[in-house]
Fold this protein.
Amino acid sequence: MKEEHKIILELLSSYLDKNPEQRFGQAIFNLGINEFQNNSDLKNPNYNLRDIHNDKDTDVIERIKNQLIWLDSQSKIPE
């Protein structure tokens, strides 16, 4: 297993420990591992998942970290 794989799994594991009510599929979507295809046509939204086959592991790690920062900031808004 590559070091990047270990990082991704640790981030996902930590997230699921903090959010046990979420299903696995929800977690990978909420962390930005899977994403919808880009679509600029607001009248005809595209809800197909983007193919992440060619994404580098480092890109996935960066998306997860960015999502964790965003999710953390959203939890502080009501405070």
